[in-house]
Amino acid sequence: MTSTPRSARSTLPFLPGYTAHDLRFNSRKPQTLSWGPGGSTDAFHKLKQKVHKVPTLNLAIVEKLRDPFHRYDMSYRSPTHDEKSFMRESARNTYRPAIPPAWLQHDRQVLKFSAYSQEPVYESPKEAFRIRCCNVYFYLEDGTMMVSEPKVENSGMSQGTWIKRHRLPKPECMGGGLYTCDDLRVGCTISIYSQLFRLVACDQFTRDFYQHALGVEMEADEDAPLDSFRASEIEDNAPETKALIAARSARLAESKEYHHLSAGGNRKNAKLEQYLENDRKVLRFNCYWNDHTKYGTRQYYTLHYYLADDTAEILENMSRNSGRDPYPTFWRRSPLRKSPNISAIPGMDVESVVYKPEDLLIGECVQVLGRDVFLYDCDSFTRDFYRQFMNLEQDSIPIENPQLVHTKLRFPPHIGFGSEEDSLASCLRLRPRPPQRDMKKLIADAEKVMRFEAVLVNSIPQDQKRRFVVAVFLADTSIGVWEFKNRNSGHTEGKFANKARRKNPMTRMWFRQSDFFVGATIEVNASPFRLIWADDAAFNYMEEHADEFPRSNVDVILSKIAPFAEDLRKVPGIMEWKDLQALAKEMDLHLVDQEVIALARAFGTYQGHPKCRATIDVSRVVSALQ
Questions:
Q1: Tens digit of each residue's pLDDT (9 = 90 or more) over 268-297
Q2: Most exposed: 12, 195, 466, 588, by fewest CB within 10 Å?
Q3: Angle 471-474-480 (CA atoms, 0-180°, nearest 5)?
């Protein structure tokens, strides 16, 4: 028996009379039934209403292509290459049609209704029916529905998906067909497979959809009725009922334990019972401790309280680059005592009071190893525990990190050799540099000196007649003091204090030029001096540099006495500077000697030492104020 390639598909021998033609080897029928979100559909079934029409070819354009001269037809412009690319990309990026279908327009849009169904109960003498609450979902993309019952712990009933998602038929009494969104309203009753469901509420999206899409105002939400079982459960959970049940249970438990022990039974293992009920239940608190020592900072901890055996552990939350040793356990798991100051010895009965859950409250402190650890937050399990078993709401206190204060190291005090700038240079650099000096000021003010006449104000009668000269050298603001010759005073004339830079004991800063004026009190070598006069060179220098010496600035002095211009008009024309100072004091205006002398030099006559006479023309002062 032979075979040829022509008859390779056939099993018949290649002999006369055995040639077969048009053999069908695949006789399977094609499957036309397919399944989708809405159920079974027929693949070859044509839609009765077509939303989009199938585009047809324009044969007129094809007729023009027969003419070989159609390329020379200039009646219309051919699109360029860039325009063709743009149209092609535009068509490619347009993923939504002009009229989107329902599965695209309402994708992932679900109407949610709250409903209940009444189920009869035959085997219980306490109730005749039971209300079962559920949720009805209507999917807008394909018109399917689903009914689901929320799960309740320890309900004794199988809950979850009640009716799977598919298109639900309406009963014949309601017109037949399938349920649509027009059939669902709050307050209506629907029948699904002979089971009645009353819709009592809906979510906000469902209300907005009915109002904007369908123009229907949904009714107000209703409350599901209570059955006997639910009503008795609410009554049993009332605080008064719980208190009575707890008291009765405590008495019965005590009596039961007494009879059990009388019959020779064993005592209950309270710790084992606590362990079995609270195993792997841990309260977690966030806390911190403020270390107020010299180099201390705020340290954060995590406190774990184990309900199984009433023990606690405290773990350190070390920050990055904290510089501390990596020992994260601050308190090893053990009972946390409230007063651990007493160290018990064998044979000593000491009552040990440990921290309980009721002692761990947010906003309170826990004392651990002499540290007041502040509790400021806890986790969700801890909040639920306190809310359920202690009827207490634990807060959360926002904590702000303390402001970092940089403690700058102080420089060592001056040792007495050389100037302070020389000693400070050895602290700033490894190789000390000489302090910089203002050479321009040294050259410009090399020979300029302000001299003041001064007296001692130390309340010693023998020093009342002593007179001194206080010299201020403007080049480096150094100060020197000399004493005038006074016969039979018991003091030698000459140098009282060497020329040197000195500090003001009141401000602890170096003396400045503006600190010296007539009427000022300065302290040199622990001796207080009051400046009573100055030479003409000092007055001229202070008036030339009025911005540095405000008590010699005439404009500043006039603005100071401007509110008293009306009182000055009543004063005679010319008066002594001492009299003007006394008059200003009566008007509650304090003018130092330097300010009155500056007015005399500007609006009167001035005579220097030894007469020390100065008069002021008040009329010129009043006219200057205007």
A1: 787 888 899 999 999 999 999 998 887 788
A2: 588
A3: 25
Q: Hunting for tokens 């921290």 — which residue is that? A: 355
Considering just the CA atoms, what is the radius of gyration of the chain in Å? Answer: 53
For the stretch 509-562, pLDDT in tens is 889 988 998 889 999 988 999 998 888 889 889 989 888 898 888 888 888 888
- pLDDT of amino acid 96: 63
Dig out the tokens for 176 from the structure: 């037949």
**Coil, strand or helix: which one is 254?**
helix
The DSSP symbol for 79 reads: P
Is residue 464 a contact partner of residue 489, using CB atoms and an 8 Å limit? no
The region of weakest confidence among 166-180, 200-214, 403-417 is 403-417
396 and 402 in contact (C-beta within 8 Å)? Answer: no
Q: How many CB atoms lie within 10 A of CB 114?
A: 19
- The rounded percent of the chain whose pLDDT value lies above 90 is 26
Distances (CA, A) of 341 to 344, 345, 364, 370, 510: 10, 13, 21, 9, 56
Instruction: Please report, to the nearest 10 degrees, the dihedral formed by the alpha carbons of residues 246, 249, 251, 257 taken in order.
Output: -140
**Residue 389 CB: number of other CB atoms within 10 A?**
11
Residue-wise over 415-451: b if at least 16 C-beta within 10 A, else e? eeeeebeebebeeeeeeeeeeeeeeeeeeebeeebbb
Q: pTM (2 decimals)?
A: 0.40
CA 119/CA 131 separation, integer angstroms: 6
User: Helix (H, G, I), strand (E, B), or coil: what is residue 300?
Assistant: strand
Beta strand segments in 274-344, E: 282-290, 298-306, 311-317, 329-334
* Cα–Cα distance measured from residue 295 to residue 323, given in angstroms and rounded to the nearest whole number: 12
